[in-house]
Amino acid sequence: MLRPAVTRLPQAHLIAGLAAIVGPTRVSTELPDLVAYSADFWPKLQIWKLGGDPERYPPDCVVWPSTEAEVQGVVSFCAEHAIPLIPYGGGSGVCGGTVPISGGVVVDLKRLRSIVAIDRDSHTVTAEGGILGQHLEDRLAAAGFTLGHFPSSIMCSTLGGWLATRSGGQFSSRYGKIEDMVLSLRVVLADGSVLDTADRSTGDPDWTQLLVGSEGTLGFITQATLRVHAAPASRHFRGFKFHTLYDGLTAMRLVMQAGLEPVVLRLYDPFDSMVALGKQDAPGDGAAEAHGMRGAIERLSHWATTRPGAAGGFTRRLRRAARTKAIAAALSVPSVVNKLAQAVPSQCLLIIGFEGPDEAVQRSAWRSRQILLDADGTDAGSHVGETWLAKRHAVSFKQARIYQTGSFVDTMEVATTWDRLPQLYESVRRAVSPHAFIMAHFSHAYREGCSIYFTFAAHRSNAERSAGLYDTIWDAALLATQAAGGTTSHHHGVGISKKHAMVAEHGEMLRAWRALKDAMDPQGILNPGKLFPDNAGGGA
Questions:
Q1: Whole-model pTM?
Q2: Residue 328 to residue 225: CA distance in whole angstroms
Q3: Which range is least confidently modeled, 165-179, 252-266, 305-319?
Q4: Last residue of a domain, one of 435, 463, 483
Q5: Is 530 within 8 Å of 494 (Cβ atoms)?
Q6: How far apart are CA 244 and CA 103, in angstroms?
């Protein structure tokens, strides 16, 4: 990946110019800052870091504005000198969306963290873009409200980041994704001016929805107004089991198309369910992708070596891997592990939950239970659902354990309509299975369709080989998704990771994107190299 040629100011002039805007203590060229801000949580960057390359794409400097006016000043200064600008929220993205691949100035917006207003009559909140998600939800809860947006990264991601990537929270089936919640934005554009989308006149474009999901390529989100809901008076969470994955998918569809609005409707595939049901508690978000991976492989090995006819070559290889107590050894033979995982006789676990007024929750819980039982489900009790709720954010803190083995782990969230969902699941599994251990759960369910959240893990002996394997896995998975009629991004964004898939996914509509980008950012300084290829839509 080559940096485009960019005219550079002498560093002293760059630092002096920015310090005049935000103050000298809020501009840094210190090595620890440059390393920290050279990456988000894109797993390919973690592979490089662990391989001894901690700052492949360092910024020229980092700046911390604390007001919208300071953001305007920074953007205007950089526009005058054609310096790339990269917005930075919590740094929790997994697609490389904040990586400064052209150098430039990383603008950390977390000092813009105020709640501007909570309108009790209109049920809206206005907040600055740098506020952390958990802080926003805590402030709303204290006032008797909820946004209803609960991504697993809520403790380390920001409102502006959610809006920039069209984030989806775990309760999206009830409350929608972030684009369904936002009413208006304040955005600093590439020339330093401010666009307030609430000032839209009749016949004007819907600037809010054009800017949401633009990943910093069209402007810096400094403030947003969103709809909120009264804090729920009651909650009901429960687990159910299904004999097959496809029985569970049918049950999910029937619940959503019955007009019910569960906050959570989540189905684990057979292997992920085996891990969950084999533990004393229920899974967190993506049960086995990190903490349970070692236990999952050990359980799989035990089942494989004690079942009738277990003398096959691939079970012997897995036995040897398990005896070493090394996840890396097992992940080095993904076709073996996947073959066994497909053969595991396990029911599929479904989690369902409702919240709201007590009477409505009880009515919905009763109706959904009837639907799930009629669809051949078995009631697994409230403990399963309630434990999921209590542990639902845990996965965000556990993936480091996989990297400590020299392996890597990643997730991929795709989506399609109900009729295409089984084919999408099977196609991606087939494409990835030769290269990585893969499992999935189905969540973010809607009347029309659902998202599949794949988790895959793999191992190679060094960082260079791991990075090559990582690319192979993603290329195969993205091609399989598009061939099966799915969308390649449901709620993680695009960044660098998926931008080349956007050409096939959006086709001629990229001409509209290119025209918009050229009009709003003619110098191409806003988060260059993200979202779409630079020449997408006929650009140079």
A1: 0.91
A2: 46
A3: 305-319
A4: 483
A5: yes
A6: 50
The verdict on 188 and 335 lying in the same domain is no
CA dihedral angle for residue 14, residue 20, residue 23, residue 24, rounded to 10 degrees:
40
pLDDT at 271: 84
> Are both 72 and 135 inside the same structural domain?
no
- Same-domain pairing of 347 and 432: yes
With helix as H, strand as E and coil as C, how does 186-230 read? EEECCCCCEEEHHHCCCCCCCHHHHHCCCCCCCCEEEEEEEECEE
What average pLDDT does the chain have? 89
Mean pLDDT of the region 154-170: 97
pLDDT of residue 317: 59
Q: How many domains does the chain have?
A: 3
pLDDT, greater one: 341 or 528: 528
Residue 392 belongs to domain spanning:
234-483
**Local confidence band at 283 (pLDDT 50, 70, 90 cut-offs):** very low
CB 341 within 8 A of CB 439: yes
Instruction: Concatenate the DSSP letters of all residues of 72-122 into one string.
Output: HHHHHHHHHTT--EEEESSS--SS-TT--BTB-EEEE-TT---EEEEETTT
